[in-house]
């Protein structure tokens, strides 16, 4: 077994539908945050999730197990919950997991891509459900650049929070 001395915190990333570029952006920003802020404090944010959300139907149990091991959940949405609403089930597993002391889940974020011309009642109801969730930070964005700025700030905050919770000997290394 490789001993590396890093305090690792898993981040589940989900982006159903046509938001794969935003999902990749999340992974890229986590890597940049590790290089620029986290590693010097022996902290690593580890991106996990499906490479393509459509396969969630085949790997539902594995995805749920993965989520149960994560400290953070970054959910990117625009118009629906994805295949068979399975992203909804996984999202609420994370959301409810914050209250379960046996799970490491600390925070669930939603990045909601703007849809200014949307009129479909089902999509509007989906967006309303998200907006009414208590204790979830929701970030609205129009472009990847907007999302980038918002997520970088969040990731820096997570690293700082983790750093403050580390024993003094760990952060001194």
Notable traits:
single chain; alpha/beta; 5-stranded parallel sheet; 18% strand
**Overall SS class:** alpha/beta
> Rg to the nearest angstrom?
16 Å
What best-fitting shape do the alpha-carbon axes yield?
A: globular
- In percent terms, what proportion of residues is strand? 15-25%
Main beta sheet: strand number and arrangement? 5 strands, parallel
Strand line-up in the sheet with most strands: 2-1-3-4-5
Walkthrough of the structure:
With about 170 residues, this protein is an alpha/beta fold. It is about 45% helix and about 20% strand. It is built from six helices and five strands. The protein has a five-stranded parallel sheet, with helices on both faces. Helix 1 runs parallel beside helix 5. The model has no long low-confidence stretch (mean pLDDT about 90).
What is the fold's blueprint, element by element?
Elements: E1 7-14, H1 20-38, E2 43-48, H2 60-68, E3 72-77, H3 86-97, E4 107-113, H4 121-131, E5 137-141, H5 144-165, H6 168-172
Parallel strand pairs: 1-2, 1-3, 3-4, 4-5
Helix pairs in contact: 1-5, 2-3
Produce a short descriptive summary.
45% of the residues lie in helices and 18% in strands. The chain is an alpha/beta fold.
């Amino acid at each position: 077994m490789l001993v590396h001395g890093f305090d690792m915190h898993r981040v589940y990333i989900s982006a159903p539908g046509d938001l794969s570029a935003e999902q990749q952006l999340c992974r890229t920003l986590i890597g940049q945050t590790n290089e620029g802020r986290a590693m010097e404090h022996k902290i690593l944010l580890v991106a996990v999730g499906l490479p393509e959300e459509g396969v969630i139907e085949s790997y539902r149990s594995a995805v749920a197990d993965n989520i149960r091991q994560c400290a953070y959940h970054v959910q990117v949405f625009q118009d629906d919950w994805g295949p068979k609403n399975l992203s909804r089930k996984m999202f609420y597993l994370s959301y409810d997991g914050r209250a379960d002391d046996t799970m490491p889940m600390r925070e669930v974020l939603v990045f909601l891509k703007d849809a200014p011309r949307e009129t479909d009642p089902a999509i509007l109801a989906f967006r309303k459900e998200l907006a009414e969730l208590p204790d979830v930070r929701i970030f609205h964005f129009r472009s990847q650049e907007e999302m980038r700025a918002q997520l970088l700030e969040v990731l820096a905050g997570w690293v700082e929070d983790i750093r403050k919770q580390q024993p003094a000997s760990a952060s001194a290394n």
